[in-house]
Write a structure and sequence with these properties.
seven-stranded mixed sheet; homodimer; binds adenosine-5'-triphosphate; 7 strands
Chain lengths: ~250, ~250
């Protein structure tokens, strides 16, 4: 189970969650995408509309089975638990945080019976929603945009991963740092990529995601890149990433 | 007093807050930048380090005067209240929300005695921190990235502005929508810009911010664009925006 997280905004969390999940499906793995961001960009990125009620409410407060919240995405074989605006309801947060964390973890373990891979998209924050994702994930993938603020973003998300690992979920680990929106013509992109690789030599994925407008266009058509334009550099880079992630998983 | 807000991440909130505040200073107006984002990108964007303790704690819990929290930025004439990681402390949020909203509003009114313009940078969320900014601001500027998800972002921030206007601050209004990261060579940029202008004809600023790597480089040097590279297209576009905003303000 993977969580795609960074509290820095606009670094490619949703684009990575949608396209990595689609590439897993493409490789024949039964995959579920969970949209934990109230904005619901991953939900619309696979051509689905947001739910009225959040699955947190339906499953943790009204005790419905989690299978009732799963929908099929526009991309065949990919399933999704859509987002809801209700996910940002602070009263819901205060209801879940102390009392129902264990129930949330049990709920997600049941998903592992039906799906080989689960990918969770997180909102840009370090609050409860990323914490829920970290409490059930084995691996956190942190997109790092090849621009200046990127390094600062890491100084806040990595400590939160360690805290959840100590207190709630000892299996959790940082799966890797993913360089995104890399523009080969800009010196800044090369500088930031070199800096991130020198600070975290073992953590950076070999696959790098280039800046490619086809990725932005695909999401506006509610499709993953592998179905919108399989010949694009964006599609090729996410296929390479999925092979690398699946390879790490097997070893 | 301006709030720069959008719950969509990476759309150019911080870049707009830093550069608009610097352009106001450049035009001879005594200006204060307030960084309400725990990430502290506006703080490092003007060459300052984050504070240990947040000004919310210092002024609302320990009752220090707000003037004690103001620092001078690297750009002469621009002052800043820096961010602190503590801004994301949920216990602090639960302490402020019911009981100290009025005290927060009084605190900010005192700033109007010392500064002609105040610009507040918000984190990518619709929680308490943007609500605090809206409770004291007269005008909200919403950056809209010229990519697909942009329109979705508006459907969440605009209702929050209306709610705060009804309940806490009747002077609050949407100052305008600012098109950012516009790439003249991409079809997608033109499509999104046309769509936003047709949906909100009276709200979109005439000034459009182009995608310009000089803006990303400037922030990595802790400087506003007008001191990093005044000849760049990014600098010119923010100078045009500041003239338009000051013009609207006078009429
Ligand atoms: N490699 C890329 N090349 C070009 N555009 C990209 C790329 N990756 C993402 N984008 C575009 O950049 C914008 C931000 O990406 P995305 O929404 O995936 O980021 P995010 O981290 O999920 O944002 P948020 O913090 O709001 O959740 C989107 O409009 C997306 O289409
Ligand atoms: N017009 C532009 N041209 C090129 N790069 C830009 C432009 N505006 C912003 N950037 C870069 O894009 C990234 C995102 O911008 P910025 O941090 O201002 O967005 P934000 O909305 O404040 O993000 P967050 O949601 O994390 O607060 C930064 O690395 C910034 O330097
Ligand atoms: Mg996202
Ligand atoms: Mg910002």
């Amino acid at each position: 189970m993977f969580a795609i997280a960074s509290q820095k905004g606009g670094v490619g969390k949703t684009t990575t969650a949608v396209n990595l999940a689609a590439c897993f499906t493409f490789a024949g793995k039964r995959t579920l995408l969970v949209d934990l961001d109230p904005q619901g960009n991953a939900t619309s990125g696979v051509g689905i509309s947001r739910s009225e009620r959040s699955f947190l409410n339906a499953c943790l407060i009204e005790n419905l089975a989690i299978a009732t919240q799963v929908r099929e995405a526009s991309f065949s074989g990919l399933a999704i638990i859509p987002a809801s605006q209700e996910l940002s309801d602070l009263n819901l947060h205060n209801e879940i945080k102390p009392r129902r964390m264990k129930a949330f973890q049990r709920l997600f373990l049941r998903l592992c019976d039906d799906f080989e891979y689960v990918v969770i998209d997180c909102p840009p924050s370090t609050g409860l929603l990323p914490e829920l994702a970290f409490s059930v994930a084995q691996s956190v993938i942190v997109p790092v945009q090849c621009e200046y603020y990127a390094m600062e973003g890491l100084s806040q998300i990595l400590p939160q991963v360690e805290k959840v690992q100590r207190e709630l979920n000892e299996r959790l680990a940082v799966g890797g740092l993913l360089l995104t929106m890399f523009d080969y013509e800009l010196e800044l992109s090369h500088e930031v990529a070199d800096e991130v690789r020198s600070h975290f030599p073992k953590l950076v994925y070999r696959a790098t995601i280039p800046r490619d407008v086809a990725l932005a266009e695909a999401s506006s058509h509610g499709q993953p890149i592998v179905s919108y334009d399989i010949t694009s550099r964006g599609a090729w880079s996410y296929i390479c990433l999925s092979k690398e992630v699946l390879g790490n998983d097997n070893s």
